[in-house]
Amino acid sequence: MSSVVAERAGGRSGSSKRRGRLSRRDFLRLSGAGLAGAALLGGAGCGGGGEQTSGVTNLVFSFGPDDSGSLTQVVDRFNEEYQGEIQAEYRQMPSDTSSYFNQLRTEFQSGASPVDVIGGDVTWPAQLAANGWILDLSDLFTEDMRSDFVDATVQSCTYQDKVWGVPWFTDVGLLWYRQDLLEESGFSEGPQTWDELKEMAEKTSRDSGTEFGFIFQGAQYEGAVVDGLEYIWTSGGNVLTDSGEVLADQPDPITGLTTQRSMVEDGVSPIAVVNYKEPETHTAFLNGSAVFCRNWPYMYGLLKDPAQSQITPDQVEITTLPYNEGGESHSGLGGWNMYVNAASEDKLDAIWEFIRFFTMNDEQQRFRATSGGFLPPLKSLYEDQEILDSQPVVSIAGDALERALTRPISPFYSDVSLAMQRQFAESLKGAVTPEEAAQNLQQEISSRIELGQRLLVEDRSG
Amino acid sequence: MATRAGTPEKEGGGLGRVFREEFRNRERRTAYYMILPTLLVILGVAFYPIAVSLINSFRLSLPGQPGGEWAGLQNYVYLFRDSPFQAAFINTVVFTVVSVALEFVIGLAVALAINRAFKARGLVRAAILVPWAFPIVVSAVMWRLMYQDQVGIINYIVTALGLIDQPILTDNVTVMIGAIVSDVWKTTPFMALLLLAGLQTIPGDVYEAAKVDGASRVQQFFRITLPLLGPSILVALLFRTLDSWRVYDLFWAMSDKQLESLSTYTYKAVRDSQLLFPVGNAAAVVTFLTAFLIAIFFIKVLGMKTSTEA
After folding, report:
1. Which partner for A370 in A58, A390, B12, B22 could form a disulfide, CB atoms 3.0-4.6 Å apart?
2. ipTM tops 0.85
3. What angle do CA B10, B14, B19 make, to 5 degrees?
4. What's the burial of A94, exposed, middle or buried (CB within 10 Å: 0-12/13-18/19+)?
5. Which residues does chain B have within 8 Å of residue A418's beta carbon, measured at their own beta carbons?
6. Are A431 and B172 in contact (CB < 8 Å)?
7. Structural domain boundaries of chain B?
8. Which pLDDT score, from 0 to 100, does residue B44 have?
9. Which of A6, A109, A418 is facing B272, going by the closest CB pair?
10. How distant is the Cα of A317 from the closest Cα of chain B, in angstroms?
C-alpha cells in the first residue's frame, strides 16, 4: 500500500502549483545526497569476505548463539593448535532454528554464502543436499569412523544413501517424573505405557495436590513436531517415510494423535500446553507444578541449580518415553551436525581438520558435555566416568538414543514441518478431531510434495 | 478538494499533446528534469518490487532460479484452495471489520468528550495518546502477558467471572478477541485524534443557530456534527482499515505466531516455506489488490461527498 500512497503523493506534488526555486533546488540537492548515500551503502555492503593471507586458510563456521560460552572456547583451542595453518572464525546466526535456516537459504539462493562449515540442525541435510548446496562427505567420513557414532545421529546426516554431514552433538526426548510423589501414591516405578502414565499422573497429582499431571511441548512450532511425532511413533505409526510415502491418515498415527489429545481431554495435561515450548515446560516442572514432564536432557543442568529449581535431582527420575499397545518406546532425535558448503571444496582439507577436531576429538566432546551439557554423538563417551559424574542424565539418554528416530528426511522438510506444526496444534487444541488432523496432514503433505517435485524438475531444466 | 476532482478532465485531451505542450515551456521542462530523480527512485523502490512480485505470482519458480515456467493462474488456484489461506483471509476480514468499527465508535465518543473546554484539557489529550505511542510489538507482548494462563490478570478475571472455560491463549476465537481488544486499546487514540481535528473545524455559530431554532442535543449531533465530520470520518476510517488489513506484528507477537493474517501467511509462504514462494507472491498480490480496492472504494465515496458539498 505504501507505494500507492507514494505514487499519489508524487503525482500531486508534480501537478501542484510551482513553488519557489530555492525549495526545489534544495529538494534536488537532498535527493542527490540520498542517492549518493545509497550508493555508498551498497558499496560497503559488498565488501567483507575472507581473504587468504599468506599460507593461512581462513574458515568461517556458522552456528546459533553460544550461550554456554563453550563453543568459543573450543574455537580458540582449535585456532591455537592450528596456528599459522588454519584460522577459524565463528559467525553467530539467529537462535531460532527456522530463522537461521532462512538466512542460510537466502544466502545460497542469492548465489553465495561466506560460510564454509555449517553447524546445522538434523533436519537440514535433505534440503541442503537436494539443492546442491552442501558436499557429499561419504568418502571422507568413512564407514569405520561412522561406526563410532550413535546410529541415529549418522542416520540424520544421510540422504539418498549418501552421508552429507558429521554429527556434532545430539539430543533426545526423555520422560522426567517426580519419584518422591509417585512413591507416596504407591507407585514403585515409572510408567511403561501412555495409559499407565495417565493413571499414575491422575492419582499422584490428586494425592499430592500437584497442579498438573503431565506437561510437554504443544505450541505451534518445530519443537512440537517432535512431540507429536513421538506420540505417533510410539503407537507404531509414521507420517512420511524416507522414500516419500505419506502415511499420516493410517490408523496408527490417528491413535498417536488421539493419545496426545486425550492428555488434555482427560485433564491429565492442562490445555495451556498448546502454548508450551521448552521454557514453559521446564519452568512448571522445576517449580514442582507437574508430576510428569517430557523434555530434552538440557533440563538436568537447571535441575541441579538451586537458583533455577525448587526441586532437587534426587526427587526426580528420568526414563525413556512410554508407548501405546502395538508400539514401542521411541524418542525424537534432536541435535546438530556439521555440513560443508559446496562452494568451499578447495578448502576441504582444512575444513575436515576442523570438523574432526570438533566432532571426533574425545577431549573437545567431553569438554562440551561437561561444561555445556551437550550430549556427545560418540558411543564410547556414554561410558565415560567424567561425563556420567557431571551429567548423570547421559546414561539414560544413551538408552533413549538407541531407539531414537529422526524426523522425516525430505527435500521438502520445511513445508512438511509447517503442515505438521499446524495440524498437531489444531488437534491438540481440539479445533479439529485427531482423525481430521490426520486427513488434513495427509492431504497437505501430499500436495506440497507434488508441488515440490514439479518445482525441482523445473530447477534441473532451468 | 473540488479543484482536484476537476483536473483529470483538463489533462484528458491526448497524452502526446500534453507532453509536447509541457516540454515546450522551458520552465516546466526544468521542473520535470528536477523531479526526475525522485520519480526514478519511486520507480526503483516501489514499482519494480511490485512488478517482480506480480510476475513471480504467475510463474512456477523458486528464488534464485532465473526464469521459470509460466503457470497462468495456477498459483492463485492453489492459494484459494489452501485452507490456511482461507483461515488467514477470514481472520483478516473479521479483525478489520470488528476492530475498526469499535475504534470508530469509541474514538468518536472520546473525541466528543475531549472537544469540550475543561481544565487540564491539554494534559488529558496528551495522556490519551499514550497507548498509541507504544511500539506494536511492545504492546502486543504486554497484552499477551495479561492473557497468559499462569500470571495473566485478564485471564484470571474472565475465568473468575465464568466467561471462559479455558485459558484465552489456548483457543483460536478467544485469541482473536484478545487481538481485537488490544488493537482497539492501542489505536482508538489515533482515531480520536483524527476525529478531534475534524470536530475543531466545525464552526461554533452553527450550533448556536441550531440552539436558537430549538434543536435538541441529539438532533444537533445527527444533523450538524456527523454530516460536517463526514470527510474526517472517511479519512480516519480509510487509514485504520488499511492499517488493520495488513496486520502482522500484533498477531505474531500476541499469539506467538499462531494467529494467521494475510500478511503472516505471505511471510510464512515466502520465507518459512521452501515451496510456496510463488504462492506467497500470489498472496502478496492478493493482499495488495484487496487493499487497493478498499482504498479506491473509500476515495470514490470521499470524492462523492466533497463534490455534493461544493
Report:
1. A390
2. no
3. 90
4. middle
5. 268, 272-273
6. yes
7. 2-57, 77-309
8. 94
9. A418
10. 26
